[in-house]
Amino acid sequence: MEERPELKISIEDHDEPLKFAAQSPSLLCTLEQNNIDIPYQCREGYCGACRAKLVDGEVIYNQEPLAFVRDGEVLLCCSKPITDVVIKLT
């Protein structure tokens, strides 16, 4: 079985990119594991509290979010990167 490379999560105003492990359930979980404090409430894409700006890269959603997501935004609680990404926390 071919091992997938770890994707990088770069955060504007942070020095080092983070590694997104394939087994991580979401961007939010990866940020929390790296002690980055993110506002959230539902963890399911209902409320939009974990909204961030997607500066570069692509993500997929674990399930289609019910919260409104504008172009260029991402809900961290229910998404995973499919490429290296750059996000700006709001």
Distance between the amino and carboxyl termini: 39 Å
Give the fraction of residues assigned to helices. under 10%
CATH architecture: Roll
Rg, rounded, reads 12 Å
Largest sheet properties = 5 strands, mixed
In terms of quaternary structure, the protein is single chain
SS elements, strand count: 7
Number of helices: 1
CATH superfamily: Beta-grasp domain
* Broad structural category: mainly beta
CATH topology: Ubiquitin-like (UB roll)
Strand content bin: 25-35%
Shape: globular
Cross-sheet strand order for the largest sheet: 2-1-7-3-5
Overall pLDDT level: 93
SSE order, as H and E? EEHEEEEE
CATH class: Alpha Beta
Stretches where pLDDT is under 50 for at least 5 consecutive residues are none
Describe this entry's structure for a reader:
- The protein is mostly beta strands.
- The chain has one domain: Ubiquitin-like (UB roll) (Roll), CATH 3.10.20.
- It is 8% helix and 31% strand.
- It contains one helix and seven strands; from the N terminus they run ββαβββββ.
- The mean pLDDT is 93.
